[in-house]
From TrEMBL, chain A:
Organism, scientific name: Peribacillus cavernae
Protein name: Spore gernimation protein GerPD
Lineage: Bacteria, Bacillati, Bacillota, Bacilli, Bacillales
Automatic annotation (TrEMBL), chain B:
Entry-linked Pfam families: GerPE
Organism: Peribacillus cavernae
InterPro entries reported for this sequence: Spore_germ_GerPE (IPR024496)
Protein name: Spore germination protein GerPE
């Protein structure tokens, strides 16, 4: 496959961002490759009701 | 091939925390990784030695990044040599995030977040004023 790109002018005004978090990437520029992977888990069993026990107590 | 130059008028940020990076200039590799284990407890309680090893599959299941080996022939023609932005203001940058101004070759970012809420047993608290009746969960 052949992929030809012609970039003309790129002018952006002001940028206001509140937060960039959780291994995010904010890029002003060009990139060859970008690979992203994200997983967020809060299943039903993560709501624990009862006596508070520590997670994986050490020693 | 001539690469473009990023031109930013000004940059400001209030917080940059938890291994985050502000990268000014070109970069070959970016490999960011963040693991977050967020516990919200109804009781103000924390044992300091908790969660050194996290027994949840979200943290030890492998991230699948396919090798970048597509048979694509790319050509870029940059008629304008600049990528221009005005003032950039980012309030918070956190958890292995990267702000990059400039060209990068390869970027790989991974994030794993696990949320857990721990609430007190409602039946134990039956006499307290904040409790729902007969200990049932709503």
């Amino acid at each position: 496959m052949e992929f030809n790109v012609t970039n003309c002018g790129l002018h952006v005004g002001n940028i206001e961002v509140l937060g960039v978090a959780s291994a995010s990437l904010f890029l002003i520029g060009d990139a060859d490759t970008i690979q992203l992977s994200s997983a967020f888990d809060t299943p039903a069993e993560s709501l624990i009701i009862g006596a508070l026990v520590p997670f994986t107590p050490q020693g | 091939m001539f690469s473009r130059i990023s031109r930013v008028k000004s940059f400001s940020s209030q917080t940059l925390s938890f291994s985050s990076t502000l990268q000014i200039g070109d970069c070959t590799y970016i490999d960011g990784h963040s693991e977050t284990f967020a516990v919200q407890r109804e009781a103000e309680l924390f044992w300091g030695n908790e969660a050194d090893v996290l027994p949840y599959p979200i943290f030890y299941s492998p991230s699948v990044f396919l090798p970048v080996a597509e048979d694509v022939k790319t050509t870029f023609i940059n008629n304008h040599p600049f990528i221009e932005t005005g003032n950039v203001n980012i309030v918070g940058i956190s958890a292995s995030s990267v702000i990059a101004v400039g060209n990068i070759r390869h970027a790989r970012m991974r994030s794993r977040v696990k949320h857990i809420r721990q609430l007190l047993d409602r039946q134990v608290d039956n006499n307290s004023k904040t409790v729902s009746s007969n200990g049932k969960r709503e």
